[in-house]
Backbone:
């Protein structure tokens, strides 16, 4: 690693989050445990609110679809009033959320509740989005050089905006020209990168994609997008073939932009 020249035709830099701008440990050791530890308290506090009831309704529907799965946790309807009945239903929701998370499921119902819980946690200062220290200075430099900067993450756009809006570096949302999540397509499919290029209004080879995941890098390359693989503490190791094949960086400062003259 060292200096990696950015090809002259690149006009936009597309960034992954987990393992690229943000330590994987932040997601695994801060965000997810926060949900597990606080879901019961959150449901008790917000149960009467329309948003919370919608979230529970989605989870209940998901639980019905999951009923044939091993270890599935049903969520009953409230069959009366009273504190005891409410506790019984809330406990079922808590157990269902814990079960889904133990299987690392990505259901819309689970993601929606998590998103609303994280929003509350960021807003109250219980959680701050962690950003590697080289990220913000590098992005400011890229923008000064006329680059557009976008995010592409499997986390929802809402979750992305929370992470960067309430980050250890303050609110840095103004550094990004746009956000993409898996609604545009999976990160391991080359078609997703063609859609992003069309959405940005450029060719795929005008984009440089930074990710820590070789399968994503491979999909982007198939779409004729430039790629660099990011090596960060805590990231999964690369094979020798991957190390010799991909351009590697361990810090955003290693990207060398062509002079704009």
Residues:
């Amino acid at each position: 690693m060292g200096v990696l020249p950015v090809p002259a035709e690149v006009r936009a830099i597309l960034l992954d989050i987990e393992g690229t701008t943000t330590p994987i440990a932040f997601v695994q050791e801060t965000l997810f445990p926060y949900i597990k530890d606080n879901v019961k308290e959150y449901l008790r506090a917000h149960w009467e609110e329309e948003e919370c009831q919608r979230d529970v309704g989605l989870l209940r529907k998901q639980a019905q679809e999951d009923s044939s799965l091993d270890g599935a946790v049903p969520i009953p309807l409230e069959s009366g009033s009273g504190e005891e009945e409410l506790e019984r239903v809330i406990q079922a929701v808590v157990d269902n959320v814990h079960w889904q998370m133990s299987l690392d499921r990505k259901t819309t119902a689970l993601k929606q509740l998590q998103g609303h819980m994280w929003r509350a946690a960021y807003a109250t200062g219980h959680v701050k989005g962690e950003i590697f220290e080289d990220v913000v200075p590098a992005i400011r430099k890229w923008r000064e050089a006329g680059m557009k900067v976008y995010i592409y993450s499997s986390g929802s756009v809402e979750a992305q905006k929370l992470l960067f809006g309430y980050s250890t570096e303050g609110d840095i949302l103004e550094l990004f020209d746009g956000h993409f999540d898996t609604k545009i397509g999976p990160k391991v499919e080359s078609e997703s990168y063609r859609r992003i290029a069309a959405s940005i209004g450029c060719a795929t080879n005008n984009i440089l994609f930074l990710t820590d995941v070789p399968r994503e890098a491979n999909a982007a390359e198939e779409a004729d997008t430039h790629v660099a693989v990011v090596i960060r503490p805590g990231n999964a190791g690369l094979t020798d073939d991957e190390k010799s094949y991909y351009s590697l960086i361990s810090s955003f400062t290693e990207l060398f932009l062509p002079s704009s003259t």
